[in-house]
Design a protein that fits this description.
- The chain is of the alpha+beta class and about 400 residues long.
- It contains 9 helices and 17 strands.
- The longest helix is centred in the last third of the chain and has 24 residues, at about 330-355.
């Protein structure tokens, strides 16, 4: 009995599940072992028998059995290779916000968030460079697709990771994306409400709209500026967090994100020197801070996206003027006025195109053909007006 171990619950672990505590502090102890200790009464909290799913509180004392002898056939734990000086410099260079509890990174396109099959370069593998003097390494809070760039939140402590996880699951974190899309939506400010599920036969690598068995998924888009009827620059806000949600939703209404061949096919690529890279960028993240106040950070565009905006004649300042602090959709009167003006602009531009049929046009216009100005697309509706007292 002299080998019995005792631990006191620290502030960072207040309120977490017991199995989660073991994962943080005794990672070599498997869940099976913890469950066996609980079943046989060897695992106790403040003297009482405990189960893996119980929550622990600050100051409680955990009684843990002695370390079990290592099995000879157990696989050795894989060690992370040390980072090179270049990798350390790169990781620190993409930090755009830093405080005692969190980092915000501006993830470049082409860098995966986490590792996987044949993926050796990823953000998670670079986090040792950001540990500094902290006891534990930073922890990812959410993900961005490999080809999506922009703001990515990373927790510096276990307490911050638990806080942010709760914030994201409660949908109180606000994320705003910028994207270039093929064609111009007939509704200028719309809410896409289409359930999503993993597409069969793709091994979970691709999502699709599934009205029968899909999970509820909602995304809002707002047109910032348009280049004729071939391309639009939009602001996107996800209200749920499904895999590839924004990409699937925009493709589903006939306006795939430029460069997204996975969901838009060949029509997602524009001619005229526009980059073939994905034009989806996590522009802003706003989330409550574990110590009070807010983290509210904007990430600069990657070079290819900025170049495309300039080539299409878009003014970046227009994106910054969008009322992104106001989560409420426009009133019914505002929607009607905007819809009329938007439809008028589309008709005007189409008349101009008919007069200049010899001009070279970027592919993708067909995505909006056959839709009269002001007509709705499947799954798209105007946001409900703000309720007035």
């Amino acid at each position: 009995m002299s080998d019995i171990r005792t631990f006191t619950v620290a502030p960072d672990d207040d309120g977490i599940r017991l199995d989660r505590w073991f994962k943080r502090h005794l990672p070599d102890t498997s869940f099976t072992t913890v469950a066996k200790w609980a079943r046989t009464g060897q695992l106790r909290v403040d003297g009482a028998r405990a189960k893996p799913g119980d929550h622990v509180a600050l100051g409680q004392v955990l009684r843990v059995p002695p370390v079990e002898p290592e099995r000879q056939d157990a696989k050795p734990k894989r060690e992370r290779p040390p980072l090179s000086d270049e990798e350390v410099a790169f990781a620190r260079d993409i930090v755009i916000h830093q405080d005692a509890q969190a980092f915000v990174l501006n993830k470049p396109p082409g860098l995966a968030t986490q590792g996987g099959t044949k993926t050796t370069q990823h953000v998670d593998g670079l986090l040792d460079a950001l540990q500094y003097d902290n006891e534990g390494r930073p922890k990812l809070v959410h993900r961005l697709d490999k080809d999506t760039s922009g703001a990515l939140l990373v927790a510096r402590t276990s307490r911050a990771a638990a806080f942010f996880a709760k914030t994201f699951s409660g949908r109180s974190a606000k994320k705003v994306y910028w994207a270039l899309i093929v064609g111009v939506p007939s509704i200028e400010d719309g809410m896409i409400d289409l359930p999503l599920a993993k597409q069969p036969g793709t091994g979970g690598e691709k999502m699709h709209v599934d009205e029968a068995e899909g999970m509820p998924s909602r995304s809002r888009y707002r047109v910032i500026e348009r280049a004729g009827n071939s391309t639009a620059w939009v602001e996107l806000t996800p209200y749920t967090g499904r895999t590839h949600q924004l990409r699937v939703h925009m493709a589903a209404i006939g306006h795939p994100i430029v460069g997204d061949g996975k969901y838009g096919g060949p029509a997602a690529f524009l001619t005229g020197g526009i980059s073939r890279k994905m034009h989806l960028h996590s522009r802003r993240i706003a989330v409550d801070h574990p110590d009070g106040g807010k983290i509210d950070v904007e990430a600069e565009l990657p070079q290819h996206f900025a170049d495309s905006l300039a080539q299409l004649g878009f003014d970046q300042m227009l994106g910054n003027m969008m009322p992104i602090d106001d989560p409420q959709p426009p009133t019914r009167a505002e929607q009607k006025t905007r819809a009329k003006q938007h439809a008028k602009n589309i008709r005007k531009d189409r008349k101009g195109e008919r007069r200049n049929r010899g001009a070279v046009e970027a592919p993708g216009r067909g995505a909006s053909r056959g839709t009269k100005p002001g007509a709705k697309k499947p799954g798209v509706k105007k946001p409900s007006p703000k309720k007035r007292p």
